User: What shape does this take?
Amino acid sequence: MDAREAIVTRRSVRGYNSKSLGISTIEEIIDAGRYAPSSGNVQTWKVIVVTDEKMRDNIANISMKQSWISQAPVLLVVCSDKTMLKSYYGEKADKYCIQNVVAAVENMLIRANSLGVSSCWVDTFENNALKRHLKIPDEITPEIIITLGYSDEKSLAHLKTDLNKIVYFDSWGKFDRKVKLINELKKQIKEKIKIRKKTKGSKTSK
Assistant: This one.
């Protein structure tokens, strides 16, 4: 699976089967986050790997009682450590820490998908309760929980906004005709594929 396919086919999955993840697979996913860009190359995120069933149940309760979370055999609790960045960037440290974590998490999600592992990004949880449960120090902030596991679900693709609605050139609202032409070409190709499929179907039915 190449990078584009891993990005395009990634889905948020909330149903997992009983198949466990090997430690090498977990490490491979986390390692992908290590190569994400970070402010000043100060990698300000930490990861707590949770596999214990009782602890996963408690985290599911802490996360607004989302019971499906405990089905995942592995939870990655991704935290930010602002202590180092504050000495470099002062009041901007909070913003940069969140950006660093988000970049790392996206890398992990894409790598997980490339390995055939399903995942979901969870950011709804009671912060202080999670810190107590995992004995997280005061200066560290849990930002995101990633659920990991294998799934039998076949998640459908979500509709995404067309490029011509989100891309401007040189200034806000300035749209480049080239992008419009590309989108029109893509639509034409899709229509041709549909016609071919219909034609093939009618031939076989005869």
In short: Residues 163-205 form one domain. The mean pLDDT is 89. Residues 177-205 form the longest helix (29 residues). Strands lie at 45-50, 74-81, 118-122, 140-149.
